[in-house]
Amino acid sequence: MALIGALLVQNPTWGRVRLSLELCRRWAWQNGAGQLKDMACRTLLLKLERLGHIRLPARQGGRCNERGYRHLAELAHNRSPIEEPLKALQPLRIELLKTGDGRLAEFKFLLHRYHYLGLRTCVGENLKYQVYDRRGRLLACLLFGAAAWKAQARDRFIGWDVAGRRRHLAWLTNNARFLILPWVRVPHLASHLLSQVARRICADWQAKYGHAIELLETFVDRDRFRGTCYRAAGWQHVGATAGRSRNDVNNTLRVPVKDIYVLPLCEDFRRRLCA
After folding, report:
1. Class at the top of the CATH hierarchy for domain 84-274
2. Domain ranges of the chain
3. pTM for this predicted structure
4. For 247-270, how does the pLDDT look when each residue is reduced to its tens digit (9 = 90+)?
5. Distance between CA 214 and CA 201 in Å, rounded?
6. Separation in Å, CA 252 to CA 22, 163, 206, 245, 247
């Protein structure tokens, strides 16, 4: 905190991003691929400010959360029905969207418009995929991000205690959004895509972040969905949430109960995750 305070005094024109990047460099705070963990550092700075230990510079832009997507510009997109057998669409192209990809705006818009949960800013390590058929028509969007900090049924399935979860949580990822576009009605497409992505996601994560992924998780709102496509793709149902939000500090806030599904990516995942 003394270092942070000194940097702010010595550099009064710095914004939060500049401060975060400087701290990452000084602390050699990097992921396995050598990238500065800027967002993790900014999260730390916000926590320190909320606790009253530091005072950060004023924000230089609007608050970056789900409200920032309420007014996304309308993007022209083809909504012609796609109702064909899966075989007629193959081979499919599952494309990883990288930083600077012009299709990221389309990805955000489609999730915001058509996913029942809308779109939140995905902080931390994440991968975004778009799926196209053999004719180049867009079929689906998938977002994988940070795993849930706590999930009793998942942690019991893995064999985690608190220390084990803290050490290896970054080796899990959450399928936070899975959108088959509403005009696409192709039997077995959803389970097929989940299986195909599971085969490549570990290598994609390793290439981007310098470490492997051992297990996938997702949370399915049981009032809306049955989890059929996850089951068909080999995911295991391990339990359900307690119906409380992470913001439920007084044990009064109720949210929909969600079924928890997981997919281990290697046979000895428990040994790796509990080491």
Report:
1. alpha beta
2. 2-50, 84-274
3. 0.79
4. 444 555 567 899 999 999 999 999
5. 10
6. 41, 28, 40, 9, 10
